[in-house]
Amino acid sequence: MSLPPTHPPTPEGRGSVSQAPNLPAGFADTFTSRYVDTGELRLHAVTGGEGPALLLVAGWPQTWYAWRLLMPALALNFQVVAVDPRGVGLSDKPPGGYDTGTLARDLVALMDALGHRRFALVGHDVGMWTGYALAADHPDRLDRLAVAEAAIPGLSASPPLLGSREANDRLWHFAFNRLADVNEQLVSGREHVYFGSQFASKSAKALPDYAVQHYVDTLAADPEALRASFEFYRALDTTVAQNQERRTRRLTLPVLAIGGAENLGASVSETMKLAADDVQGLVLPDCGHYPAEEAPKAMLAALTAFLAPYRDGAGA
User: Fold this and answer.
1) 8 Å CB contact between 212 and 196
2) Which of these CATH numbers, 3.40.47.10, 2.130.10.10, 3.40.50.1820, 1.10.1330.10, describes 17-159+238-313?
3) What are the pLDDT digits (tens) for 45-91?
4) Would the pTM of this model clear 0.90, i.e. be above it?
5) Taking a C-beta distance cutoff of 8 angstroms, is the pair 120, 311 a contact?
6) CA-CA distance, 64 to 71, in Å (whole number)?
7) How many other CB atoms are there within 10 angstroms of residue 94's CB atom?
8) Which of 13, 83, 131, 205 could pair covalently with 123 via S-S, beta carbons 3.0-4.6 A apart?
9) Do 218 and 44 form a contact (C-beta atoms < 8 A)?
């Protein structure tokens, strides 16, 4: 006698759509939280909308929630998949696998499980690292790639250890996050100090208090979440070696590279031109490191224009 198929439970609690604060009106009518079993781990994704598939990958130390202001409009034209990658939010937090090659494979497996062979991807910060890896390692899967506000270790030039004060203020967390365990000991119980400072120092327009609190509370609620938040950086030796090999295989798909004028600016497109042949660069004025939350209207307009050929041609 065969047993009936089992289905993952519905995500609930902190990090799910049902518990996320201050979502746009009607958000839960379009979007739902779901667990997706990739065969190796269980990922949490928020899905909704109609049209070709669009994968949204947020950066450190955020979750799918970073895209909330863009998602309702994007869902008018796309099947939106806003994912919590390995180690983030409600997704599994295994001890390893935080190099971008593994993270990219996770996302390919996620989209396979959701029935999406081809898709477009928007990645911010660490999501930009992963988006580059996915485009390079799985070129048959992506139609278009939009990235925002990151340098790519192993592709971008490494800054000097004793650089300017401005560079140090922007980048010191790289060295801190790579430590083996002392960073967890220092941050545990003081998450609001560390992560709150990161958000405050990198934004030109302050993120809403409720959003910062949501991100901090998510990290503070579980020691594994705090540990996993550092694992992306602890895996940098592997990611750098992978990227040094990837840069020998140039990307041919269209790439949109977005920088905030008050943070990385044009350097985002300069980074992507080291790896890709077809790069459009855009610098958003009065914007820092978090364009999806600081300048959602401008970012939505840019993504809408960039993704239009994919939207219109996906069914051809």
Assistant:
1) yes
2) 3.40.50.1820
3) 999 999 999 999 999 999 999 999 999 999 999 999 999 999 999 99
4) yes
5) no
6) 10
7) 15
8) 131
9) no
